[in-house]
Write a structure and sequence with these properties.
With 975 residues, the chain is α/β, with parallel strands linked by helices. The protein has 38 helices and 27 strands. A 13-stranded parallel β-sheet has the order 13-14-15-16-17-18-19-20-21-22-23-25-27. A seven-stranded mixed β-sheet has the order 4-3-9-5-8-7-6. Strands 10-12-11 form a three-stranded antiparallel β-sheet. Helix 37 links the parallel strand 20 (853-856) and strand 21.
Length: 975
């Protein structure tokens, strides 16, 4: 493409930019999927850039230009020409030449605050990027940010599914997963990118640069509230203190009542980072603080982050929070991250030779990460991947093999080696050996751990170093404690100074590593064991086992087992922690290993997704303890598959292949398909999915999985979990055979006429079809089941009247009618599912007289209860957020499912309202506290009771053992 003179700006530069990109794509013979793979960008980002829907970022254009083999400068020139004049509210004030006769308009406080947020959070710390100058190890957020995958258990399948005790997991890119949420609890491991996601949300919101998927989040004012800072400063702040609590310099000029007004108007985006940074005994108070904010400001958006084990599932469900979990980076994500890390490093390079060397190192590392499964597992979080990139560069292509070796090498690299190699001998007048650095940093880390903090006053750090200097004469002779601390912050690459008066570690992982080393050197085994049940100490204990000498690690593991044996409440957690720590020990006595594994076997086989996740964390060694499918109970088969699939690697692949060949029961667990993400797509499809393909729903998320569909033809049942075009969806489907189709990310669909090319299709679910204004393309189809989820507001659903064979309808989206009376669904419906967000009255539901199954995820009014009770054929009812005190008796209902959101499931009212029940299921995941009394159900003769996630049950002794089923099934030591 020729470079054009940008003096003549196109009439519509954005349209011209999109046109050039489309032309280049056609010339290169690339599909959108292929372009996505080459760039590492999201499918929606690529599609929007080519369609001219939104202005692409500079980083997007750089990636597209590289993939298309063209000069990026003309594209960037068009982008600059297309950039809108910044809106005064959201973007920086436009810089204009000062004129003597005209005063520059003064920005409002809100404009100044948004500008501050955008600047304050606009850079990421990229570990190891510039080892000689840690302060330069930063990179613009828009170039470095990687949209990770988030997993969700959708509320629609928590209730009313025949396998509700084995809920499906939906995985989406962050912007898709967040799109329809107002309140989010985000779970993720250390270094998984939680804080970076909040940072990106804050900056993109402040600059008004949120992507199209998050259009509903635009126009808000972000408040970034790191709990690590807030809890150290005393009581959690009220809105008028948000800015001062985080040390924002604009706090003093904040207008009276401004924060309250922003929140009250529903224009705030409150980003609360790090529930796990709050000591366990104070988390209840933190939840109370959140719930008070939620009660006062119902329309504000909230995102709260935590490590997975810090709070139980459903911790904020009563406040209608959607729980999302950060997934490990896929191999494709890892490749993108490695490329961006090296791009950032090249940007800071001063010579062409260094840039060429970085290019060669990137190429080699991309190959190594793909080829070595152990390394791929280590690089599954942004933090670990950045460490690997830095070490690979520092060691000129040679890498450690284990996690602890990686940390040790990273510390050595960050503390000393780079300065020595670059002849930076005496920075800031202080010269410390690696050992001296470590001793001082350990002292700070261990204080933070013992005091359950992740941030300390600078004065405290000075006092700790001052206490150490008399015993470190060689250091004391070089300077004061203030000078030494300044050196550690400026040169170690491990400490930061977030504000003038605070100190913290660049990442919690380094704090835990150094603190564990200090605990072992201090022989604080009782302290480690006594705190081992606390999630803030889990990583510390594991790393302590790694630091310990053989006799010490054996002693520590025995103590963990002994405490677990003595304390029923913490038994599983402590025994699992001991088993997880085995892989950290360099050398372990055979008798101690056998003791730990013997106690781990009591937790075998896993019986729930949570148990599977815990076992998978133990690493590949646990595979030898997993049983085959023979004689497994119904709730164990899927959990065993999930454990092996999560671990990944050749050993796990062989286990799953043998496991599948021995499967005789139906249906096939969905975990077998979910595991597809963790292995190469085509071999997994051939070896593991092909034998059972007619009994499963295929989950397609990546281009590789899409291409692998060709070996699984004919396709009967498929779920597309990422955005694909209609032609890509149809490519491998069979008109004569495909009966069930679910599209979870329909953002690339512009109409639904393509569905007519699947005449055998009977069941269809569509979600997030953001470009659709109607569903008229479905009219006349012989569908028997239809699900419409998360559609844009004001979409026309009039085509529902022209689906004569429809018997099952699920609506999980806002409806354009005031009540169901106006909904034109055919009269033959037997199954109706409605979520709380339909925003319509249930009035009129009685016109579907054939209804047998009804799912309602919101509490009916007394009038709605009466109308529901008039349905003559209704036998199955599923309901959440209910008040049975308003209900009308329903003698026809024989199967009832309840999902309470608080401690009162109102079971004492069930016998009078539903006197003829044959079964009742109570799902307690969202009920806190999760205690349930089933005694009132003794009044219903012969009723079968299922209890899900009820940790404490009263009245069990009143029923025969086979009358009550619990999920997960309780474990008893020795059982």
């Amino acid at each position: 493409m020729e470079k054009r003179d940008m003096g003549d700006v196109d009439e519509d530069p954005l349209a011209e930019l999109a046109s050039r990109l489309r032309t280049l794509r056609v010339q290169r013979g690339l599909q959108i999927g292929g372009l996505q793979q080459r760039t590492g960008l999201g499918r929606t980002t690529v599609s929007q850039a080519l369609n001219g829907q939104t202005l692409p970022s500079e980083a997007t254009l750089v990636a597209l230009a590289k993939a298309l083999g063209t000069d990026v400068e003309p594209l960037l020139a068009l982008r600059n020409a297309a950039s809108p004049v910044p809106q005064a509210r959201r973007n920086y004030p436009q810089l204009v030449a000062r004129r003597a006769t005209r005063l520059k308009p003064q920005p409002s406080f809100e404009e100044r605050y948004l500008r501050y947020v955008a600047e304050r959070h606009s850079q990421l710390t990229v570990v190891g990027l510039d080892l000689s100058r840690p302060e330069r190890a930063r990179w613009p957020l828009d170039a470095a940010y990687l949209s990770l995958e988030l997993a969700e258990r959708p509320e629609d399948w928590l209730a009313g599914n025949e396998e509700a005790n084995r809920p499906s997991i939906v995985v989406k890119r962050a912007e898709h997963a967040l799109a329809n949420c107002r309140r989010v609890l985000l779970r993720g491991l250390a270094g998984s990118g939680k804080t970076t996601l909040l940072q990106w949300l804050a900056v993109a919101t402040a600059r008004d640069e949120l992507p199209e998927e998050l259009a509903g989040w635009r126009g808000r004012v972000p408040f970034v509230l790191p709990l690590r800072t807030l809890v150290r400063r005393g009581p959690l702040p009220e809105p008028h203190d948000f800015l001062s609590a985080v040390g924002a310099p604009l706090a003093a000029s904040q207008p009276e009542g401004w924060a309250d007004a922003v929140l009250d108007r529903g224009e705030a985006l409150v980003l609360v980072d790090g529930i796990d940074e709050v000591p366990q005994e104070h988390r209840g108070a933190t939840r109370d603080w959140l719930e008070q904010l939620l009660a006062a400001y119902k329309d504000a958006r909230f995102v709260v982050t935590t490590r997975p084990s810090a709070v139980p599932e459903g911790w904020l469900s009563s406040s209608h929070f959607t729980e999302l979990s950060v997934r490990p980076m896929s191999s494709a994500d890892t490749g993108v991250f490695v490329h961006r890390w090296h791009t950032a490093a090249r940007h800071g390079s001063t010579t062409e030779a260094e840039r060429a060397q970085l290019h060669d190192l990137e190429t080699a590392l991309q190959v190594t990460v793909r080829a070595q499964r152990d390394l791929a597992q280590l690089s599954s979080t942004p933090l670990m991947c950045a460490l690997i990139c830095a070490l690979h560069r520092d060691r000129r292509g040679h890498l450690p093999h284990s996690r602890m070796e990686l940390y040790e090498a990273a510390l050595s690299m960050l503390l000393v080696r780079r300065d020595l190699e670059r002849s930076i001998d005496d920075p800031e007048g202080i010269q410390l050996t690696e050992h001296q650095n470590v001793q001082l940093l350990q002292r700070l880390a261990y204080w933070l751990i013992r005091n359950r903090q992740t941030e300390m006053e600078r004065a405290t750090a000075l006092a700790l170093i001052g206490d150490a200097l008399p015993a470190m004469q060689a250091v004391a002779e070089q300077g004061t404690s203030d000078q030494v601390l300044t050196h550690l912050v400026g040169r170690s690459g491990l400490l930061r100074q977030p504000t003038v008066d605070t100190i913290d570690f660049v990442h919690r992982t380094f704090q835990d590593y150094l603190g564990a080393k200090a605990a072992i050197e201090a022989h604080d085994f009782p302290l480690l064991v006594n705190n081992a049940h606390d999630d803030q100490w889990e990583d510390v204990v594991r790393m302590a086992v790694a630091h310990a000498r053989p006799a010490e690690s054996a002693d520590l593991l025995r103590r963990l087992i002994q405490r677990g044996d003595a304390e029923t409440e913490h038994r599983s957690r402590l025994h699992l922690l001991a088993a997880a720590s085995l892989q950290y020990a360099t050398e372990i006595e055979p008798a101690v290993r056998e003791l730990v594994e013997q106690h781990a076997r009591v937790l075998m086989p896993p019986r729930s997704p949570e148990e599977a996740t815990g076992l998978a964390a133990l690493g590949p060694g646990i595979l030898d303890l997993l049983p085959g499918p023979e004689d497994l109970e119904y709730d164990e088969v899927g959990a065993v598959i999930q454990t092996a699939a999560t671990i990944g690697g050749d050993h796990a692949y062989a286990f799953l292949r043998n496991f599948t060949q021995s499967l005789t029961s139906a249906p096939v667990p969905y975990e077998l398909v979910n595991g597809w993400d963790n292995f190469e797509s085509i071999p997994y499809a051939q070896d593991i999915l092909l034998p059972v393909k007619d009994h499963i729903t295929l989950f397609v998320k990546t281009n590789d999985q899409h291409n692998a569909l060709q070996v699984l033809k004919p396709i009967l049942d498929v779920n597309f979990r990422e955005a694909f075009t209609d032609e890509e969806i149809l490519e491998h489907l069979s008109p004569e055979h495909t009966q069930r189709l679910r599209i979870d990310a329909g953002s690339l669909l512009t109409d639904l006429q393509f569905v007519h090319r699947l005449p055998a299709l009977r069941e269809l679910t569509l979600s997030e079809c953001s470009q659709l204004t109607h569903v008229d393309g479905l009219a006349g189809l012989p569908l028997t089941s239809l699900g419409l989820l998360r559609f844009p507001d004001e979409v026309s659903f009039e085509a529902l009247a022209f689906l004569p064979k429809l018997t099952e309808l699920a609506l999980y989206t806002r409806l354009p009618w005031d009540s169901l009376e106006d909904m034109p669904a055919p009269p033959g419906l037997t199954d109706l599912r409605l979520v709380r967000t339909i925003d319509a009255s249930l009035e009129g539901i009685s016109k579907w007289q054939l209804l047998e199954n009804l799912i309602i995820n919101s509490g009916p009014t007394p009038a709605e209860w009466r109308e529901i009770s008039s349905l003559p054929n209704l036998t199955d009812l599923v309901i959440s957020e209910f008040d049975l005190a308003q209900a009308t008796p329903m003698p026809n209902v024989t199967h009832l499912q309840l999902s309470p959101i608080d401690a009162d499931a109102q079971l004492h009212l069930v016998p009078d309202i539903f006197p003829n029940l044959k079964s009742v299921l109570v799902h307690c995941r969202n009920a806190l506290p999760d205690i349930i009394d089933v005694t009132p159900l003794t009044q219903i003769e012969g009723v079968h009771i299922s209890l899900q996630y009820a940790n404490s049950v009263v009245g069990l002794e009143e029923f025969d053992a086979d009358a009550i089923h619990r999920y997960p099934r309780p474990r008893y030591t020795g059982a």
